[in-house]
Amino acid sequence: MPEEVLFRFEQSMDRSEIASYLRTVADRLEAGDDLSLEADGQDVALSPPGRPTFEIKAERETSSSGGSPELSVEFELEWTEGDENREGGGGGLTIE
Description:
The chain has 96 residues and is of the alpha+beta class. The chain has 2 domains: 1-47; 51-96, no CATH class. It has one helix at residues 15-31; strands spanning 35-39, 42-46, 53-61, 70-78. The strands form 2 sheets. It has a two-stranded antiparallel ribbon. A two-stranded antiparallel sheet has the order 3-4. 0% of the residues are buried. The model has no long low-confidence stretch (mean pLDDT 90).
């Protein structure tokens, strides 16, 4: 399925700044509010359903030129547009 990027933002920040953004997302999700993203002339409003799929991925990417590996952690919410009542299941998650 083709992917359409609706919004993209990437910038080096202090950990406390990143935590503040994540906290805002968490607060809006918990309240059942929409998410509005704005940066560099881009904006998008999203309405996550009550039970989106939550994915966390940790990766190590090595470059073909032999440079230092790049580590990343990605947090993703995923849902089908218009799907408000998705049922979920599966095991638990621990983040420490």
